[in-house]
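In response to the reviewer comment on reproducibility (Comment 2.3), we provide here a single inverse folding case reported in full, input and output, so that an independent group could reproduce the run without further information from us. The structure tokens appear first.
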């Protein structure tokens, strides 16, 4: 049996209209991306990307999107993302664009990158604070950014990504 390798593209929905993020649905986002792929690469690009293309994760509050596609066609997907100009939801069009943050081989690497990215964004906000109340709120958010590992149920040593064992 052959394992199909995938790539995960971590994106951020950027919009001037605050209602856009609240009305995002994964189906509408998937259709907008497929439409952009068709406009840029035609039927060939759509066929290549549609094989295992899915919206794996969508957080409407933060505007974070995780897209999955085959390893062979992730470049077609990434090159079509700047051409997403609007999202259509409930018969309304919201102008927006997708900012590609990271391309990874696993969801876990995308999670790690997202935690690091959010930490740097919070540090930038911390530098631009005007009063002490904002500073305290951002510091609290900064301290809550972590990815904790659960111990394995068997108690055996786990292997890191590079294949070495940890103590």
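Designed residues, in position order:
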């Amino acid at each position: 049996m052959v394992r199909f390798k995938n790539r995960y593209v971590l994106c951020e929905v950027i919009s001037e209209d605050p209602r856009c993020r609240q009305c995002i649905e994964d189906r509408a986002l998937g259709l907008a991306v497929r439409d952009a792929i068709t406009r840029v690469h035609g039927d060939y690009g759509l066929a290549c990307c549609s094989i295992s293309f899915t919206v794996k994760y969508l957080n409407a509050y933060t505007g974070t999107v995780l897209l999955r596609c085959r390893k062979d066609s992730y470049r077609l997907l990434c090159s079509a993302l700047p051409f997403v100009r609007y999202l259509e939801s409930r018969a309304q069009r919201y102008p927006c664009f997708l900012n590609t943050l990271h391309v990874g081989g696993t969801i876990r690497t995308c999670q790690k990158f997202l935690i690091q990215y959010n930490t740097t964004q919070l540090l930038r906000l911390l530098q631009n604070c005007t009063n002490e109340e904002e500073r305290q709120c951002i510091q609290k958010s900064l301290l809550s950014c972590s990815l904790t590992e659960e111990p394995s149920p068997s108690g055996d040593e786990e292997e890191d990504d590079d294949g070495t064992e940890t103590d």
